[in-house]
Structure of FAD dependent oxidoreductase:
Amino acid sequence: MRAAPHLLVIGGGVAGASVAWFAGQAGARVTVVDAGQHAASHVPSALVNPVRGQSGQVARGALEGMRLTWALVDTLEKAGIGVPHGQTGVLRPVPDDRTRQKFGRNLPPDLPHTWLGPDQSPAPLTPGWPHALWLPEGGWLDGAAFTAALLALAGADVVRARAQTWDARSVTLENGEVLCGDAVVWCGGSVGAAWAGEPGTHRAGTLLTLDRAVAGVPVSFGAYLAPARTGGVLGATFEAPTATWREPALPAASLRWLLGRADALTDLSGAQVTGRWSGTRLSGLVTGRGADGVWRLGGLGSKGFLLGPLLARHVAGDVLAGLRV
Ligand SMILES: Cc1cc2nc3c(=O)[nH]c(=O)nc-3n(C[C@H](O)[C@H](O)[C@H](O)COP(=O)(O)OP(=O)(O)OC[C@H]3O[C@@H](n4cnc5c(N)ncnc54)[C@H](O)[C@@H]3O)c2cc1C
């Protein structure tokens, strides 16, 4: 009998954990090498939102990706690993008729949605928003819990270390140990791209954790308010893009910007800030096999939990299909 293929995955964020999950489901043996540092996937509350940004773009695969993410949450829960989440719907207020038309042009017919007037909103909005798009299948989830649960249930061996170098079939750790496998998949995210000296577009942002969910459902335009495991969050990735990863910080001007965006969305009075989480995401989606033979899944931007698992399923499938030929 042929031995199961052995995949070495660098990075244990949502990309790497999802690759490990799907490869494990397909019968592969998986080793995940994860430094466990600066994972954007540890975002305390991530939106699962198919209609993006201030232009309402809908990425290819958004509906399928959203449903797959919820299906995975369900599978994890049935296996006894609860992931704090709410498939509550997502509310996207828009500031004017022109933006509503722009959003409308981007909405695929098969994406369930409803346009609401100011008095129909399921969350209290600051006066002045003429329309809000309601996306009933969206919601939020705890990024760290989702990622950890996937990794735990994937049955992968997890090596807590930083990979120093790698090629198509091996990974050398910082301590000089060499791991060998049948394929290597790089899922190092923003910090990993910087460690590897690769060019990229990095964008930092911050979530303020709040003692309560100000709006009972996620509300997003510019910044987002969402429920979280305990209380709620106010956040966005909003710092100017940089060509490399930098230790994320929250300058006073950024804090003011964030609070201003929140005030524009809803009434924050009475909510207490309990802490802060800052992270950096990498833009410029890369999937597939590079000229060096190393597979990659990276550059998930602000769609890590919308598209990460779906793209990981494709990558894991392609890696294993290549090994079985
Ligand atoms: C403030 C903020 C808010 C966000 N909000 C949302 C949201 O609402 N919805 C959404 O879908 N997405 C959101 N995102 C984006 C999402 O978090 C990312 O797209 C996603 O987490 C990226 O996952 P990843 O697995 O590619 O990388 P990461 O999660 O960064 O994981 C990479 C892992 O690889 C490890 N690693 C890197 N290099 C090496 C190496 N050489 N050796 C060993 N380990 C290595 C790192 O230590 C890390 O643990 C947000 C991001 C930020 C910063």
In short: The helical segments are 14-25, 62-78, 97-106, 143-154, 189-195, 252-265, 304-324. The chain has one domain: 6-324. The longest strand covers residues 273-283.
